[in-house]
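Suppose a colleague, Dr. K., hands you the sequence of a protein chain of 228 amino acids and asks what its three-dimensional shape might be. Before reaching for any lab equipment, you can write down a predicted structure in token form. Begin with the sequence itself:
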Amino acid sequence: MDSIEQLKNDVISASRILSQQKLVEGFGHVSARIPNSDRFIITPRISLALVQESELLTMNSDGQVVEGRQAAPIEAALHAAIMKAKPAVNAITRIHARVANIFSVTDRKLEPVHSHGSFFAGGVPVYAKPDLIVTAALGAEVTQILSDKPAALLRGNGQVTVGRTIPEAVMMAIYLEEAAQILFGALQIGTPIPLTMVESKQRQVEALTPADMERAWNYFKIAAKKAN
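The predicted structure, expressed as tokens, is then:
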């Protein structure tokens, strides 16, 4: 399997995982950078539970489709903006996690209180406009809000997560919703105790080593296949 074929295979795996985890239902998209190019693979305007490898699109960093016949997702500009501005980012998920969304429409910061949440040290930034990210200008605004964080909340409109690899972007999506669920639960029974920046840094080292990343990716891939 060549590198482009493997990339497409992993994009489909990511799509199925996000669907099986209920982080997307009908809407959402995934993209992955093609190494050593200004292009990326992206899911089209098709549910992530249904999209097929043959339907994937190739786009450039200006948000133009250069390969594929399906319609591009309406927020393709978001992926293009992040890919252009952040060369260290190689994969992006655009999800609609329900509990994390609650924190985008309140003044309560989504901050980590457990080990898997440690990647969101200091709190998850929120893009304050409720707009769909349909232009390069809006994409640039979200990119600025995202900064060097692994995730951002889009006010009332889901989330975006990024990673150096497809598995990392997917795990950030899963951990983001887990962090939101645990913090939301803690708020029901008492005052949450957030991880400090030092505690978060220590937990990050332990929470997702390369071996554990592979372990988690393989588990979620098999779980998604069994669910289908």
